[in-house]
Amino acid sequence: MSTDYILLIDGDNVNCSYLFPFMKYIESHFGPIAETHLFGKLKSSYLDDWKAASDNVPDINTHVTENYKNSTDIQMVLVAFQKYFSENQRHFVILSSDSDMISVSAGLPSDAEVIIGYSARKASAKYLADLDSRGIKRIDIDSVRGELTDSELRSIVNKVIKTYISFKLS
Fold first, then answer.
1. At 94, which helix (H) or strand (E)?
2. What are the beta bridge partners of residue 8?
3. Cα(19)–Cα(17) distance, integer angstroms
4. Cβ atoms of residues 72 and 94 within 8 Å
5. What are phi and psi of 113, to 5 degrees?
6. What is the pTM of this model?
7. Rounded mean pLDDT of 148-170?
């Protein structure tokens, strides 16, 4: 049984600027990342920034989802369960501020370790309290990445706005 971590990334929910600082943090504080899985609407312009970032991650597994409610969440759950039941994987890191990730962490058997990376700017207090009540480790990815300069923040916001508008108009 592996002690390496499976990293599941909700690309629809988290900006790619968190990826490399978060991966480094996980590997230095918890252990190696055996696999990285990126989920989201990768056929659309909505995730162009993730497409570019994922080119710099060796052996990243991408999971293209459609533009349906919860399709990304469902794919993430399916991969986590497949890794747990078929491959005896017990260590998962989920990068998402979406409270739907409770379905992954609560659905896995109790011997699975789940760590949630979330943005304090996006996650609700109810979601964080639910994670705490279930004893699920959580990491504020804003503090891991560090504060952005005004220029960096402006650049990220501009990219996100452009890709979002392009996605909505397509």
1. strand 91-95
2. 37, 94
3. 6
4. no
5. -95, 125
6. 0.84
7. 75
